[in-house]
Each structure stands twice: as C-alpha cells, then as structure tokens.
Amino acid sequence: EIPLGQGANDISFTPVSPDGAVEAGDKQVAEVKVARTPVLRGGPGPSEGKSAASGPAPPHPATLYVLSVGISRYGHPKLTIPNADNDAAAIAALMHQPTPPVFNAVDESPPLLNEQATRDNILAAMKDIAAKAQPDDLVIIFLAGHGAAVDGKYYFAPYDLGMHDPDLFRAATSARNPASGKAFDQVYRKEGVSQDDLLPLIHSIKASRVAILLDTCYSASMATVDAVFRRDENHTMTDALGHAGGRFVLSGAFAKALSDDTPAAAANEDTASNEDDGEDEDDGSGKRHGLFSSFVLRALAGEADMDHTGRIDIYKLTMYTMAHVEEESEKRRLPQSPWYTAMGQFFDLRATPTK
After folding, report:
1. Are 227 and 330 in contact, with CB atoms under 8 Å apart?
2. pLDDT tens across 29-47, in order?
3. Which of 220, 255, 291, 307 is 20–30 Å from 131 (CA)?
4. What separation in angstroms does the CA of 189 have from each of 128, 146, 162?
5. Is the distance from CB of 333 to CB of 322 less than 8 angstroms?
6. Are β-strands 7-13 and 112-113 bridged in parallel, bridged antiparallel, or unpaired?
7. DSSP string computed for 85-102
C-alpha cells in the first residue's frame, strides 16, 4: 500500500535486480501522478429520510508529531553526560509552536527525558506516532544521549542501558578487563535501541515527511547511503529505508570527538556533541546545550532563513547546522563533522516570520 496525501501525489517506480543489489538508472524510472480528492459525505438527513451530499470533507490539517528524547542522567551514573535532556526539552518546546501553513496542529506529546526514556517507552512512543500520523503530516524524531556503532549498525542508549545484566555492565566498564570493549558492544546488542528496532516503526509511519535528528556519537552510521547498492546488506538505516520518500536523517558526528578511546572511558565519554567543551552558551534561561543541538535550535528558530522566505526546510537546516558546527568545533580544537542524507524531496519543517 502507498499512502496518499491530499491533492497531487507523484509516484515513481524503479526496476531493481532480483537480489535488490542493483537499481536501474534514471531513464528507466516510471512516474505516475495520482490526485486524491476529499470524499463526498452523504446519508439520510435528520428529517428527510433520503441521501444528500453534504459537500466535501474538510481537509485534514497538517499535524506535527514530535518524539524528542534526551538522556543526561542514566540509570548507571557512569554514563552521565551534560545537556542532552536540555536539548530534547528545548526541541520539543520550540516545535510545539504551530507554524501554519507548514503545520496547523501539534500532537503535544511530552519529551522523554532521563528516567522516562527507557527502551520500552521510546519504542512505545514510536508506535503511537506510527498509529496516528497521516500522509499529510510531519514527523520529527530527535535523539540525544549516548550512541554507538556495533556490527556496522547504529545503537541509541536508553536510560536503562546496562541495568538488566549487572555482571555484563561491570565487565564492560572495568579498566582491568582487556575485553571490555567487546563486553560494551554486547551491552548495546542486548539493551540498546538499534536501527533494527527503529526501522520497522519508521517504515510504518504513513506521514510523507519524516525528519530524524541525532545528537549522539556514531550517528552518521544512520546517515550514509550508497545510491547504487542501496539495498546491499542493509548496513545503515538509510540503506534499509530504500525508496521511502520524504525521509531525512541529520546526524551530529561520525565518531567520538574525544581523544580517550579506551573502553573504560567509553562508559563516561561516549558522546561527542554533548560533552566536554562541546557546549554552547545558554539559551537565555540558564540552560546549556550541546554544540550540535544548539545550532539545530538556532536554525529552527529562524537563523537558517537566510534568504528571508519565512520557511525553514531541511536543506536550510542542514547547511546552516553543518557549517556552524564544523566552524565552531574547529575553534575549540575538537573537530566534529555532522552528516546527512535525504530520500525524496526536501520539505519544510516550520515557518518563521519574514524579516
């Protein structure tokens, strides 16, 4: 099934080899335009006893759904990091302000912060969005906290990472254990939120516009795509998304930006963009933000609208954030390179007052 938004829908069909490894070129793409019009509602009137059309159904207002997750205080104190909870709370507060015509209504689900951001709660919130979002809606998923790349796949660390197998976590965080790195990978495999957990839920979201913003280490493993061998081995999240239109991933870092690479340090210094001197000045309320998130917030608040059109789309967000994060991180001698990928057409994230 292909969910259709109201009005015109452009659908493209591309031949792919039987094993899904090779995709045909642009000249072999078939395009179909399908218009979806409101259904005429009718039925017996209250006194007439006969069917009469009451006119077209009112258009479904574009609704924004935001899942904003930020974890600074983990169940294990060794994993504590600054700013991630502030980042998620600020993203939710900013995006919960309706900006028509990009979106007219907001599903005001509260952000999942610290102890609220368990693995079960994160996945349940994703399922709830997938059940409610319609084709014309906009979905933004923001994750801030610890992240890892294990077996070539991205993992996000929920609040309860390491709490279900204390012996394994002790082995993973022991400086005396030469195999602590492998043990930490096993912690993520057993208790992390993997791209394999997220992908089926993202696939099930009917919304035509889905943006995923990741402020964790190794998040670029979810934002890498090979256009020719797109489906080969499905190493990354965007590989597996395949042809899904209107899907966008903006990640904060390729790897750790800290020099301490030991397994013991990984338990404490696993997140590049939320740690150390990767902080930006406070947002006016006394709360500080990670470097990547601070520029995402500035971009969405209007600073990325450099051509004064009154719109912030994913292209403006990306160009503004990447340029400023790279410039500022170079000044601090802690190089950090965000990365992105997009499937389908660029789309607006919010409207801002035209200056």
Report:
1. no
2. 888 998 877 554 444 444 4
3. 220
4. 24, 14, 11
5. no
6. unpaired
7. HHHHHHHHHHHTS-BTTT
Say how far residue 173 (Cα) sits from the centre of its chain: 29
Q: Give all strands (DSSP E) within the chain, no chain letters.
A: 7-13, 30-36, 40-44, 51-56, 63-70, 105-107, 112-113, 138-144, 147-150, 153-156, 193-194, 209-215, 247-251, 311-313, 339-343, 348-351
Taking the C-alpha atoms of residue 159 and residue 296, their distance in angstroms, rounded to an integer, is: 23
- Residue-wise pLDDT for 47-69, tens only, equals 444 443 445 555 567 899 999 99
Give pLDDT, residue 345: 75
Whole-angstrom distance, CA of residue 312 vs CA of residue 226: 27
Is the Cα dihedral 22, 28, 31, 32 positive or negative? negative
Q: Which residues pair with 113 in a beta bridge?
A: 70
**Per-residue DSSP letter, 35:** E
Hey, what's the torsion of the CAs at 111, 115, 120, 123, to 10 degrees? 20
Encode pLDDT of 256-313 as tens digits. 533 233 333 445 444 344 444 345 555 556 678 888 999 999 999 999 999 999 999 9
- What's the whole-model pTM score? 0.78
The CA-CA-CA angle for residues 130, 236, 117, to 5°, reads: 45
Using alpha carbons only, give the angle 181, 223, 113 rounded to the nearest 5 degrees: 70
Compute how many other C-beta atoms are within 10 angstroms of the C-beta atom of residue 43. 9
- The more confidently predicted of residues 303 and 28 is 303
Helix (H, G, I), strand (E, B) or coil at 49: coil
DSSP 23: B
Rounded to 5 degrees, φ, ψ at 41 are -95, 140
**Does the structure show a pLDDT above 90 at 239?**
no
Tokens of 302: 């209007």
| H-helix or E-strand spanning residue 339 | strand 339-343
Cα angle, residue 349 at apex, residues 102 and 140 outer, rounded to 5° = 115
pLDDT, tens digit (0-9, with 9 covering 90-100), for 67-116:
999 999 999 998 999 999 999 999 999 999 888 888 889 998 899 999 99
What is the rounded distance in angstroms from the CA atom of residue 250 to the CA atom of residue 219?
9
